Amino acid sequence: MTERVDLSTVTPPVALGPLDGRYRRVVAPLVNHLSEAALNRARLHVEVEWLIHLTDTGVLPGAPRLSEADKGYLRDVVDVFGAGDELEELAAIERETLHDVKAVEYFLKRRLDAAPAVLGEGTVLPQVHEIVHIFCTSEDINNLSYALTVKSAVEDVWLPAASAMADDVAALAKEHAGAAMLARTHGQPATPTTLGKELAVLAHRLRRQLRRVAGTEYLGKINGATGTFGAHTVSVPGADWEAVARGFVEHLGLTWNPLTTQIESHDWQAELYSDVARFNRVLHNLATDVWTYISLGYFHQRLSAQGSTGSSTMPHKVNPIRFENAEANLEISCALLDTLAATLVTSRLQRDLTDSSTQRNIGVAFGHSLLAVDNVRRGLAGLDVDGAALARDLDGNWEVLGEAVQQAMRAASIAGATGMEDPYERLKELTRGKKVDGPAMREFIGGLGLPDDVEARLLDLEPGTYTGLAEQLVGHLDD
């Protein structure tokens, strides 16, 4: 038997997972924020800014002040990271250090040594080796780097995409605010609503979760090995280290956490991931509802201009694959986000490393959610409402007016009308388990002895007009 090609050796490398393979195009924007390379760039950014912060504040006796050219050079190290062979260089250093943050420290020190070739011999950067990473444990760098990368991923990529999708749902709700539709509670015909109102419910729920995500507080700390500023106060006892730390964390655009162990407690991450998971679950509800409306014929799916294959054997089919794909990816995303939220809040005593491995999956969790959002947007964009199907379903279920008749009888009785006894039982006898058409319902209403105005109002009622304030309620999307 001929030996097969070892796919693990193929160039370019074959992706192990779908996010970096089949679906790369959709989730690629997250690479700039939540990949290993993006994390290392953020670490480099934190190290550079800490060096600048310490020299700017003059907190270290004898430390030189950096010129604007020096600072520009350092920040450019971060800005160009990844443009050349920096990723491979850093990887080579890490193969020697066997420590990711230490590798970043050494990488930066190499750039300090190379500064005179760019800035001239007058630069002080080669002299500040010992300020790089001073008073820092690796978690001081990591917690700030993760906060920065997650914040930028949410605010620059995930939140805009999710918000645009929620806006699409809201727009569809407004467009069909008055489209009467038979409701189904427990899967059975129930009091009519409108298609727009049902979509508005989902848009409203999605937007509420998005507001929670948008309000996330991203915390950070830089206080040493056990969160006590121990080395700081021994080495430079005259400094206000709390003020220095707070100023630095806020300079990065984060919220300072004054009380930590060696790690920032990750509670903000758990809160964020729970909110995103809840958004995912509401979106999953939308996907399954729209799938059901498609199966009922309320929605028709448009064929793409390029054509599509619904089934490999049944050419008549146009499958709701966008919504099914979204369901699957939302479930995977929620599983990861739930794990992140549950595990990141716990660290044994002052530090263990379980969070280090767990956090490497943040990008995967957001990637599957982003992919689902994209699929729902594309699925919604290909839908047309079949008004005739909505009308047929309503006209085939006149028994749903039983609720309106019963409640009108109760109200009439309270207002003093006689002969309105046992309205529930009388409607139950007429409608339960039975199909009732318009003539039968009107005949029943006419025999109840209702006050003339109530009877006239009920006789004018049809399933398609029995939608209450549904159309009006859609307006709350603009509240």
TrEMBL record:
<dbReference type="Pfam" id="PF00206">
    <property type="entry name" value="Lyase_1"/>
</dbReference>
<comment type="function">
    <text>Catalyzes two reactions in de novo purine nucleotide biosynthesis. Catalyzes the breakdown of 5-aminoimidazole- (N-succinylocarboxamide) ribotide (SAICAR or 2-[5-amino-1-(5-phospho-beta-D-ribosyl)imidazole-4-carboxamido]succinate) to 5-aminoimidazole-4-carboxamide ribotide (AICAR or 5-amino-1-(5-phospho-beta-D-ribosyl)imidazole-4-carboxamide) and fumarate, and of adenylosuccinate (ADS or N(6)-(1,2-dicarboxyethyl)-AMP) to adenosine monophosphate (AMP) and fumarate.</text>
</comment>
<dbReference type="InterPro" id="IPR020557">
    <property type="entry name" value="Fumarate_lyase_CS"/>
</dbReference>
<dbReference type="InterPro" id="IPR022761">
    <property type="entry name" value="Fumarate_lyase_N"/>
</dbReference>
<dbReference type="Pfam" id="PF08328">
    <property type="entry name" value="ASL_C"/>
</dbReference>
<keyword id="KW-0658">Purine biosynthesis</keyword>
<dbReference type="GO" id="GO:0006188">
    <property type="term" value="P:IMP biosynthetic process"/>
</dbReference>
<comment type="pathway">
    <text>Purine metabolism; AMP biosynthesis via de novo pathway; AMP from IMP: step 2/2.</text>
</comment>
<feature type="domain" description="Fumarate lyase N-terminal">
    <location>
        <begin position="24"/>
        <end position="326"/>
    </location>
</feature>
<dbReference type="GO" id="GO:0004018">
    <property type="term" value="F:N6-(1,2-dicarboxyethyl)AMP AMP-lyase (fumarate-forming) activity"/>
</dbReference>
<protein>
    <submittedName>
        <fullName>Adenylosuccinate lyase</fullName>
        <ecNumber>4.3.2.2</ecNumber>
    </submittedName>
</protein>
<comment type="pathway">
    <text>Purine metabolism; IMP biosynthesis via de novo pathway; 5-amino-1-(5-phospho-D-ribosyl)imidazole-4-carboxamide from 5-amino-1-(5-phospho-D-ribosyl)imidazole-4-carboxylate: step 2/2.</text>
</comment>
<feature type="domain" description="Adenylosuccinate lyase PurB C-terminal">
    <location>
        <begin position="347"/>
        <end position="467"/>
    </location>
</feature>
<dbReference type="InterPro" id="IPR013539">
    <property type="entry name" value="PurB_C"/>
</dbReference>
<dbReference type="InterPro" id="IPR047136">
    <property type="entry name" value="PurB_bact"/>
</dbReference>
<dbReference type="InterPro" id="IPR024083">
    <property type="entry name" value="Fumarase/histidase_N"/>
</dbReference>
<dbReference type="InterPro" id="IPR000362">
    <property type="entry name" value="Fumarate_lyase_fam"/>
</dbReference>
<keyword id="KW-0456">Lyase</keyword>
<dbReference type="InterPro" id="IPR008948">
    <property type="entry name" value="L-Aspartase-like"/>
</dbReference>
